[in-house]
C-alpha cells in the first residue's frame, strides 16, 4: 500500500513503497520535489516554500504561504524546561548525540499532539518539528561553545533565524550576511528530501508502528548520523583536511580503489545516482559564490575538492563504477567557509531533512489503510535441529 514497505508473500520484501513526494532518476541525475526540478527550486524558491510544497503537494499561493509561515512562527520556541536536557551533556558531546536525545524528548512535552489518529495532532506535530528543530540545532552549537542560547526571532526566515541563533551575541548587533543566508537557505532546500533513503525509511518504519512523530523523527536523526549517509559531509571535510595538499590526491584515489582498504572517498558515490547528483552541481556553484563573497576563493580545502573531483571523474575505476560527487561533497566546503564547525554539518543536514521526514511520515500516516512495515528476509541460517546437553557438546 502507499507509503509502506510492500512485499509479495513468500518473497523477500521488495523494500519498495509508494510515495508522491520526491522522484529521482539515478541514470539521468534528476531530482524532483512534487514534480519541480531541484535546480529551479534551489534557484527560485525558499526553504519555507519548499517545506509547504513537500508537505502539501502544491506550491502555495501568497496567502497560503503567509499563513504557513505564521503557523511555523507560533512554534519556533521550545519549552523552557528543555534547556535542562542540555546541562546533562558534556560540553564536548557530539551535537548529533544531543539532537537525537532532545528531539526525541519533544514527545515528553507535547502531549497534545501525540495521537497519530487525530488529524489535528498530525498537523500540529509536523509544524512543531519543522519550527523547533532549527532552534534545537542552534542550541546544540551554543551549548558546545558555552554561549547563551539565542531565542528565535520571528521576523526572520528559518535560514536567517538559524544563523542568528548560531552566531549572534548579546554584546553586539551582528546580523547574518544576506548572501550567507541565501547559501544556507539553498543548503536547506537541497537537503530537504530524497525519496526513500536510509533515514527516511527509518522514519517510515518507526512511524508505521504508531510511534509518535517526535520519536519517529528522532530515529531518522540517529540513522542519518552514519558516515555512509548524512555523516558523510563531516567525514568528507575531515578527508579533505587529511589530504591536505593536491599533491596527495593520487594516494587517496588509490586507497579508495583498494578493496583491502576500508577507506572510501567521502562525498563520492551513491546507491541511486549513477550520474552527477544534481544537488552537488548546485552546491559547487554555491561554493564559488560564498567563497568569493568571503574572499576565500583561494581556500586550500576548496582547491583540493575541485582537483579531487577533476581527477576522480577522469579515473577509469570511478568511471567504470559510475562514482560521482554527491550532495555531501561540496556542502562541507561551504559550511566550513561560513564558520560552521565540522561537527555541526550533519546537524544541519538533519535540520533540513526534518522537512522531508515529516512530509513522508505525514503521507504514510494519512493513508486510511496504513499497516505496520514488516521487512522480510532470506533465511540463510541453520535448519531445524535438536538441543544438545552441555555435557555432550
Ligand atoms: C547520502 O540514499 C540517499 O539518497 C542518501 C542521500 C540522501 O539525500 O538521503 O543522498 C545522502 O547519504 C549521500 C551518500 C553520502 N555517503 C558518502 O559520500 C560516503 C561515501 N560513499 C560510499 O560509502 C557509497 O558510495 C555509498 C554508501 C553512498 C553507497 O554505497 P553502495 O550502495 O555500496 O555503492 P555502490 O553499490 O554504487 O558501489 C559500487 C562500487 C562498489 O564496489 P564493488 O563492490 O562494485 O567492487 O563502488 C564502490 C563500492 O565499494 N564505491 C566506492 C565508493 N562508493 C562506492 N569506492 C570508493 N569510494 C566511494 N565513495
Automatic annotation (TrEMBL):
Gene3D superfamilies: 2.20.28.60, Citrate Synthase, domain 1, Cytochrome P450-Terp, domain 2. SUPFAM superfamilies: Citrate synthase. The keyword Endoplasmic reticulum does not apply. Keywords: Acyltransferase, Transferase, Tricarboxylic acid cycle. The keyword Acyltransferase applies. GO terms for cellular component: cytoplasm. One of its GO terms (biological process) is tricarboxylic acid cycle. One of its GO terms (molecular function) is citrate synthase activity. The active site is at 270, 328. It comes from the Bacteria. Belongs to the citrate synthase family. PANTHER family: CITRATE SYNTHASE (PTHR42871:SF1). This is Citrate synthase. It comes from Kangiella koreensis (strain DSM 16069 / JCM 12317 / KCTC 12182 / SW-125).
